[in-house]
Design brief:
CATH superfamily of the largest domain: CBS-domain
Number of helices: 9
CATH class of the largest domain: Alpha Beta
Strand order of the largest sheet: 3-4-5
Largest sheet: 3 strands, mixed
Strand content: 15-25%
Mean pLDDT: 90
Distance between the termini: 29 Å
Radius of gyration: 24 Å
Low-confidence stretches: none
CATH topology of the largest domain: CBS-domain
Length: 182
Amino acid sequence: MFNELQEIKHLRKKLGLTQGELAKYAGVSQSLIAKVESDSIDPTFTNAQKIFTSLQQLSEKEEQKAVSVMNKNLIYLEPTDSLRVAIQKMKKYSISQLPVLEQKKAVGVISETAILDALMNNKSADTPLLEVMSEAPPIIDTNASIHVVSHLLKFYPMILVAEKGKLLGLITKADLLQVAYK
């Protein structure tokens, strides 16, 4: 829960709410919100709790979910595909990494870096991806928050998005940045 009374005005404005709207949602008067924001009154613990709980619930409701930023065009490879096929697909779609799926289940990731490493280590372009792919990326639910997505992308090159076990799309750092700067 939020812990500073001085944050109320900032959080309310960030959510695009008027004092009256916040008051109605929190079950307090608009004048109480105005007085708390102007620091002319200290609310009771109960009223402060109502206001902060309302702000928290409203901010969670406003937060974007994985489904709103995921790339629904799921381009993938299979473990038996060769490095050559991976290179061709990456060039065709101008992407630097692809999930590797087997029977619609994630089994790995292949990236430009992994391909370059394999070729530099004298692997043939006909080498199957199974021999050079990285571990499978995490799979999150469509309702996972953007906060969760951004945290996972610090550690993984991509995240797969699924609903009831069915893969629906993926999210990369580029997808997240595109949404952030719309």
